[in-house]
Amino acid sequence: MDYVDEYLNHLVIERGLSHNSVTAYSHDLCRFFSWAREKPPDQVAAEDLREHLVWLRREGISARSMTRAMSAIRGYFRFLLEEEIINHDPTALLDRPKLQKSLPGVLSRQEIERLLSAPDLENVEGLRDRAMLELLYAAGLRVSELVGLSLNDIDLEAGVVRAFGKGSKERLVPIGEEAVRWARQYLLTVRPAWAKGRTTNALFLSRRGKGLTRQAVWHRIKHYCLAAGIKG
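User: That's the sequence. What structure does it adopt?
Assistant: Structure tokens below.
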């Protein structure tokens, strides 16, 4: 028994969600359990949810729809935990996919576009910096999370990045086509030359083949904000 009907009734009666919202949540949950081959909820693990997130991305589901789907799944398992139907919440270590957000502060669409276009693509550092800015923007990463990324933390085929936030909390976040395109260009044309003969596994490197520091990345962001005419 998956208790989906009980959860949907809870959404209607106790939370007062609209018919359209409940229908959407029902679709998301049915899709998940169909994908999971009707696995009982008490046997669902965090890794199942991460794999489902990757599968949704490969199926071409939009970031907004993925956010709603994971909200439905998160709420469902929290409901089961509160009702003592399960004794652990597999979504506890899984963050919601983030919709695109601006860096730094709250920027207009035009300011974001100017910031992303600020790096000089005629030099290799500009290519690296464009990839960094696109990834920061698409995944909503903190600078500390960006500099902590390793080669194993990005999957360009699936279009996802694995980040570790405060307290080493892990999350898997979908990224858009632009971020994938620029990351791939950096990995193919810039990083191999800088990493030659070195063993570092850091995703973003300096010319010396070492991982970037948080201070170095902030310096680059401030430089590009100034170049783009962004104040504050």
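Residues 109-227 form a domain with the hpI Integrase; Chain A fold (CATH 1.10.443.10).
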